[in-house]
Hints:
This protein is mostly beta strands. The protein has 1 helix and 3 strands, in the order βββα. The protein has one helix spanning 61-68, and strands at 2-7, 13-27, 34-45. The longest helix has 8 residues, at 61-68. The mean pLDDT is 79.
Amino acid sequence: MEFQRKESGTSDNVAYLVWEDLTVVAQSLKNGATKKLVSGLSWYAEPDRIMAIMGPSGSGKSTLLDALAGNRTT
Length: 74
């Protein structure tokens, strides 16, 4: 994940939050097996835009937000 600055049409610089090929893997506490929770996700967030992360229960929304916040190993 990285921050990118781009010149806009005005004198202000804007920052985009970009993540490419994000993968989150968890290890089972019981048997040590690993499982991909999020795989190959690429996206970007623009300034002055609202973004919603939607999906059914268990689809990885909180896992994605934890990974973007640096709370999980990616």
